[in-house]
Amino acid sequence: MERERLILSDSFWLSLASTFGSRRAMRDEAASVFAIEPAPAAAFFPEDPSEVSIVVDTARNEKVPLAVLGACTRIAGGLARRLPEPGYVALGTERMAGVEEVQQDSLWMKVQAGTRLSEAAGIAGRHGCRLAGTVDSDSGTVGGWLSSRSGIRDWILGIDQPPVLSLEAVLPTGNLIHSVTTPRSATGPDLFSLLLGTWGGFGVITRATVKLEPLPEQKLQAEFNFPSTKKAVGLLRDTLSRTFPPSQAMVVIEKADEWRKARVLLSFEGQREVAQAGMAAARRMAKAAGGREAARGRASIRPRKALLQAGVRWSGLMQLLRAVDQEFSGHNWAIIDRPCLTGCRLGLDLPDTDENHRKLEKILDPEGSTASSLTSARELLAGIRKQLDPAGLISPHAWPLPWPGGRL
Amino acid sequence: MSLLEPVLADPKIVDKLRDVCGPEHVSSKEPDRIAYARDMWPRSLIRQRAGFLDHPPDIIVWPGNPEQVAQLVKIAGRAGLPVIPFGAGSGVCAGTLPVRGGIVVDLKRLSTIVEMNPEDSLLHVEAGIVGENLERELNHQGWTLGHFPSSIYCSTVGGWIAARSAGQCSSRYGKMEDLVRSLTFVDASGVVHTTPFRTPGFSPWSVDPLLVGSEGTLGIVVSATLVIRRLSEQRWFRGFKFPSVTSGLQAMRLILRRGLRPSVIRLYDEFDTVIAKTSPEDDVREPLLGDLGKRISRPLKGLFSRSLRRILMAPRLLNRVAGLLPGGCLLVAVQEGEEEERETSAALITEICRSQGAADLGEGPGRHWWNNRYSVSYKQSALFMSGAFVDTMEVATTWDRLMHLYQAVKKAVSGLAFIMAHFSHAYREGCSIYFTFAGAAANDAAAVTLYDEIWEAAQVAVLEQGGTISHHHGVGFSKQRYLTRQLAEANVLGDAVKQAFDPGNIFNPGKLGQRSAKAD
Predict the structure, then answer these.
(1) Which range (A14-18, A136-140, B188-192, B487-491) has the least confidence?
(2) I need a surface site. Which of A400, B4, B104, B421 has the fewest CB within 10 A?
(3) Which residue in the set B197, B429, B469 is minimally distant from A165, CB to CB?
(4) Min CA distance, B217 vs chain A (Å)?
(5) ipTM value
(6) Can you tell me the distance from the alpha carbon of A134 to that of A132, in angstroms, rounded to the nearest whole number?
(7) B507 touches chain A (CB under 8 A)
(8) Which residues of chain A make contact with B499, given a CB cutoff of 8 A?
(9) Which chain B residues touch A340 with a CB distance below 8 Å?
(10) pTM of the model as a whole
(11) B365 touches A at CB < 8 Å
């Protein structure tokens, strides 16, 4: 606490406290507001983007590190795995909350960044829609969800687009920027992509127009048992190249089966005819591949959360599974999910430790080429950041940018 | 037409480039400089018709591998010469025109398919390969990129990446940004980088979205890893006639909303419907602009040419007459995929179209469109030769604003040029509008002034309606002032990106709102 006060000058505190008032500017009470260690030295709760600019400008001028805090779930991803260093100031987004407009026909919702995902989802539901992205934590905020880019769902169609049509944000320079609300454009580099998946490292998202999708008319699910993992994975891949791919697909392999047998869970949803056509094709393909469908009501795959995860191309998956078997011990299952045309995610019930990540990275990238290209890409992004935030004060904990599959 | 001699700070620069790329792959000769002083930007075509060549490069280089690209970038950087990457010159926004001379780097010798990886549905290909050549090779092996811009015969993979282009089947396969999984590029210091491979849904950040669409201003993309798909052998074709644009758009929206993925779904407004022609039997008939070209080549071409120009000089009247045409808008649909899913899609698309009052025209119009899908881009020269001009503008917005945007642009332009439109590249949330406008003036100088007035009116209308100024042609030199307006304070972000990638401003200066040269 002593160190925090040293960093936080009176001029900084006084200039913002007078703007925000006692209910929206906190010093000692800040620790009790956010369930996070280390606690912020102070916290400010802007109500609109112009107030965000004031906080950002003041932090920059006074050289105080600033962290944007949403719900602090760290599930939606606002803080990734990292926490700010002591002595930082928090910009809380909770007062920038609310759904401002829903366009049912165009399938979008204009929402402020501090809005809880549960609230956004609830309002979407009342309009016969849902958020067009995966939501891992209802208590997370829209801002955290987007800044971690955790909600991508279109990958299954081979399209890697975020669940957002436009963004409004405050840059580290204090500039308030906003993009055009459009499904697509060709207006130079996608500058606003810098705000997605960079954990606040390029600015504070204040508002977004997020995509919606209609609530599905029908949901169909089937589980298939395969005598070999290879055939199960083959089915997964084949379903992805169809016109109506599954909305959810996973393969589970268990130690209890000596890592041999595999179970595949496929879900199809959407308009009745679309879901049925997708499922009918999947059943045919599963049967042709030697899969046996589990009797209705006997399906055994339940959602499970893998701790150690890695993205892998299809061509490297079987080799990776064999290597995991040799290099790791103590895990009881492996799950293959988030499939796309080029690869999938492998999850293991192993602790998310540095050592495990290093081992996994060594298997995945023995030549170090991925690590090298990551370093180069990080340097480029760090160069952009330097232009906008030379002292590195906005979301410093986001740097160097994390990459899943490794602590890096 | 003759050009000034190149003004080169270092007279030995040509020799240095020849040492790197070979003497036959470097030129500062006038014919080459003239050839590379143009793309398909209609304004520069009008200027050329009047005898002006505004944007000649000093040197043209044809590197044969990425290392040569890296070396020549180093040489250019030391000499302070601009470097302009060049694909096949089919752009319509002056993206490759050298604003202040410099070195044009034609990448067409980098045309190798480096690796086909069917197991991962991936292709590693060099940037200079012409689209049609790539697609043909993929088709031979049972695969497709699914990217079919109408310029496919004269555009390259690198150009598609640079402009964030869209193919005619984008509703099924996505735009160029969806196909890229990794890029290899040469940076401003002449270093070759490969970006991290993106696993969709799992890779949170990437520099690819900055390079895709950067129009050669951040680096030179020399190769790309792209997603490929299995080639669909069978297609379902259909045409529907709607009572109005509104009902047709409603059908398009519902088709996408219901989770269908047609390869092609495009709606023509009333006049574009007349021009697109719907006759199922008449596959050899071509769009009106092509017909005009044929007529001009006939003996009475002088008379016809004068008549056409005179007609186009009264755009308000022409647009009013077009507005009186009997109603009806053509929607063309094409569906690919496996038999069962294709049939399910066909039934649902037909049902939705009928529910919006459409008449089913059978497969003829769809098949006709498919067979002629690349034609129109190659049939505009006759119109230019008549003394008139034609251009296209592709914008986009969400469904709720689409009709407002369509009407606002038509209103803004109707007093200046004849205008029509079709709606293609549909998404669940919105759609692109592809405007075509044709105009004429008393002489070429007046035509350039008119051309600028049309673009100003049209783009301001787009900005006022909250649409994006470009959906897939890019920005280039022609739209950059509107991009600056669209970005507003986000120009700060654009400047930071440029500064980080290219602090010396050697890559394609004067584009995307950037400074025109280092000295500026």
Answers:
(1) A136-140
(2) B4
(3) B429
(4) 9
(5) 0.94
(6) 7
(7) no
(8) 383, 387
(9) 199-201
(10) 0.94
(11) no
**Distant-in-sequence, close-in-space partners of B213: CB < 8 Å, separation ≥ 6:** A186, A187, A188, A189, A190, B162, B163, B164, B177, B474
- Among B156, B212, B152, B154, which residue's Cα sits nearest to residue B179? B212
B488 and A178 within 8 Å at the Cβ level: the answer is yes
Distance from CA of A280 to the nearest CA of B (A): 9
**A220 contacts on B by Cβ (under 8 Å):** none
- H helix intervals, B231-300: 245-257, 270-276, 288-296
B484 touches chain A (CB under 8 A): no
Quote the minimal CA–CA distance from A187 to chain B in Å: 6
CA nearest B401 in A: which residue? A106
- Residues with Cβ within 8 Å of A399's Cβ and at least 6 positions away in sequence, in order, are A201, A382, A385, A392
Write B74-80 long-range contacts (CB < 8 A, 24+): B74/B189, B74/B190, B75/B13, B75/B16, B75/B17, B75/B20, B76/B102, B76/B103, B76/B506, B77/B188, B77/B189, B77/B190, B77/B504, B77/B506, B79/B8, B79/B9, B79/B10, B79/B13, B80/B9, B80/B504, B80/B506, B80/B518
Q: Does B400 touch chain A (CB under 8 A)?
A: yes
Candidates A57, A148, A167, A191: best to mutate against B (most CBs of B within 10 A) is A191
Which residues neighbour B174 within 8 Å (Cβ) at sequence distance 6 or greater? Answer: A157, A158, A159, B146
For the segment A147-181, what is each residue's pLDDT rounded down to a tens digit? 887 666 666 666 667 899 999 999 999 999 999 99
List Cα–Cα distances, A334 to A255, A320, B80, B120, B315, in angstroms.
9, 11, 55, 21, 67
Look-up: residue for tokens 């007349």? B274
Beta bridge partners of A43: A26, A90
pLDDT tens by residue, B238-249: 999 999 999 999
Whether residue A311 and residue B199 make contact (CB cut-off 8 A), yes or no, is: yes
Nearby residues of A368 by Cβ (< 8 Å), 6 or more positions away: none
Is residue B500 within 8 angstroms of chain A, CB to CB? yes
B-chain residues within 8 Å CB-CB of A342?
120-122, 181, 199-200, 227
Between B16 and B38, residue with greater pLDDT: B16
Neighbour order of strands in the sheet with B103-106: B26-27, B59-61, B103-106, B83-86
Bridge partners of residue A109, in order along the sequence: A102, A210
Residue B317 corresponds to which tokens in the numbers above?
């009247």
Facing residue for B468 by CB, picked from A185, A197, A273: A185
Q: Flag if B121 and A380 touch (Cβ within 8 Å).
A: no
Give pLDDT, residue B203: 75
Phi and psi angles of residue B471, each rounded to the nearest 5 degrees, phi first: -100, -35
Cβ-based neighbour number of residue A82 at 10 Å: 16
* Residue A11 identity (one-letter amino acid): S
Of A176, A186, A281, the CB nearest to B164: A186
Residue that is written with structure tokens 């010396």 in the block: B504
Using the structure block, give the residue that is written with the tokens 């709607």: B242
Q: Which of B92, B205, B475 to mutate to test the interface with A (most CBs of A within 10 A)?
A: B205
For chain A, the C-alpha Rg in angstroms (whole number) is 23
- Of B134, B190, B206, B123, the C-alpha closest to B167 is B134
Beta strands in B362-467 (DSSP E): 389-398, 418-426, 430-439
| B173, B177, B179, B182: CA torsion to nearest 10 | -170
Two tokens, residue B411 = 């209103």
C-alpha closest to that of A177 among A194, A152, A159, A153: A194
Return the closest-CA partner of residue A383 out of A177, A201, A184, A149: A201
Does residue A76 contact residue A117 with C-beta atoms inside 8 Å?
Answer: yes
Residue A308 tokens, joined: 């150690």
Residue A146 has pLDDT above 50, yes or no: yes
Q: Is the pLDDT of residue B4 over 80?
A: no
